[in-house]
Predict the 3D structure of the following.
Amino acid sequence: MKREKLDFLADNPLYTKRFAFYVGRRCRDATIKAVAEDLHLDWHTVKSLEKQYMREQLRRVGTPAPRVIGIDEISIAKRHTYRIVVSDLERRRPTWFGGQDRSEESMDEFFRWLGPKKSAKVRLAVMDMWKAFRNSTQKNAPQANILFDKFHVIDHLGEALDKVRKSEYARLTGKGRRFIKGQKYTLLAHRENLTKEGRKSLKLLLAANKRLNTAYLLKESFEQLWDYNREPWARRFFENWRDALKWQRLPSYEKFAAMIDRHWDGIAAYCKPENKVALGFVEGFNNKIRVIQRRAFGLRDEEYMRLKILTCMLPKI
């Protein structure tokens, strides 16, 4: 007994590849359950056909050889279970998902997968200030410049501002507290992103508390650091910003400034014209991953999650 292999059939011989790709395209914008109900198919059948579609997408784009990579971790479960995602920032798409955690050994897995020849072509690595990522990159791609992601740096500054808010709330009593309570995200958000009511609350808060007003203005001005095209100018701005902390009694800001000083090389790298990459892609991509996880109410199949993440920026077939 022999069974003939037909090229137009999907991995599931009951369906053609054309139908499998149709199902895959539908699943890009809808849940498996919704597609299964609409097409009167079993849930597992739809998932299997979508996997075939996503594997074909990856096959068509081939093996990447990125020159500018973005490195970040995502949480895939409770209790601090992480996986590493590496993106090609020039082609604006994820290229690798893996590791067992966010350790240096897990990061080394990416460079082994990429190979020494392609690793030698990486000229810039964008990451947060996590030591394991930096050590692995310096070991496996020593020629690459390291650039610390602006959005992660600003997150640290936001945490410092929130500590000031908490300390002021603990220090004050009575009516002085009413302007601070519930205003965490009003302080952390950019003024242009606030609603009319939010701007009004922010104005009242800053007028009522001098220390929070100072901390907020320092936070807003710090983003100017990424506007400079020469490192000496950026350094002068940072030194002036740090000098403004004197006598302000903002210990969380002083710790933040010390952290920036320790990691200065990875921040000043953005001053070079060739390193002016679109840093917003990494943050936008992280939001896209959270949407994928939320739509699926959590993904228990890690291989399916890997395929969803690696293909979410690829064109339809």
About this structure: The chain has a mean pLDDT of 86. The beta strands are 68-77, 81-88, 93-98, 124-127, 145-148. The longest helix spans residues 150-171.
